[in-house]
């Protein structure tokens, strides 16, 4: 089967207006999939939709939606009822670096809703439809920060740890039903969100572009439960796993403080 045969005819991508999500729309369209683009910024979303249609000659649909809402399935189900979503990319995330107690409680709970709860609801709905058809794929965005406590990104890292465990568990559960699941442990990636935190250069922290990050995910889908793009990133994860968790957390805290602080 071709990629489009296995995961088409439509993909749904959240956070599709910029960054990794926008790159997923481009690479999936290049593989012949039509795209449902979901994000909260309507102007940017429509611009991305039009650019994808012009370049790749595929169909698109735009759904402007705040993924922190509890009724996202009630909004998305009728918008997609007449098409078959064969691939779900749950990518949208809220991320701001800083001390946990400096963030407001509404911000932290919204981060939980967008980064993790939305993915649970999307996978339950669209994953169920895929399992009923006996084919499909799901990519759930995690992060290298999911593997250890990450000071100054504590809540974000916790949401990504949730996503990683969910993806890897569903990789096993849904395989017999024809649905491939992948957790994407993206490292530092050159996106609008990353740059908005004004990171300082750190030679020990490689920053990848979106193109190889997404390409690695699409290569791994159907082959493994999770993937960490970037050889240097993988070496770093191995190095951190070889020391005590306390030492790993201290190392990450010092690196975060150097790049984004001082805190």
Describe the protein.
The protein has 263 residues and is α/β, with parallel strands linked by helices. It has one domain (3-260): Rossmann fold (3-Layer(aba) Sandwich). The chain is 51% helix and 15% strand. A 7-stranded parallel sheet has the order 3-2-1-4-5-6-7, with helices on both faces. Helix 5 (105-133) packs parallel to helix 6 (154-174). The radius of gyration is 18 Å and the shape is globular. The model has no long low-confidence stretch (mean pLDDT 95).
Which runs of at least 5 residues are low in confidence (pLDDT < 50)? Answer: none
Reading the helices and strands in chain order gives HEHEHEHEHEHEHHEHH
Q: For the record, what is the CATH homologous superfamily label? A: NAD(P)-binding Rossmann-like Domain
CATH topology name, in short, is Rossmann fold
Strand content: 15-25%
CATH C-level: Alpha Beta
| CA radius of gyration | 18 Å
SS element count, helices = 10
Structural class: alpha/beta
Output the strand order for the largest sheet: 3-2-1-4-5-6-7
Number of strands: 7
**Main sheet record:** 7 strands, parallel
- The percentage helix is 40-55%
CATH architecture descriptor text: 3-Layer(aba) Sandwich
Shape: globular
Instruction: Give average pLDDT, whole number.
Output: 95
Spatial separation of the terminal alpha carbons: 52 Å
Number of separate structural domains: 1
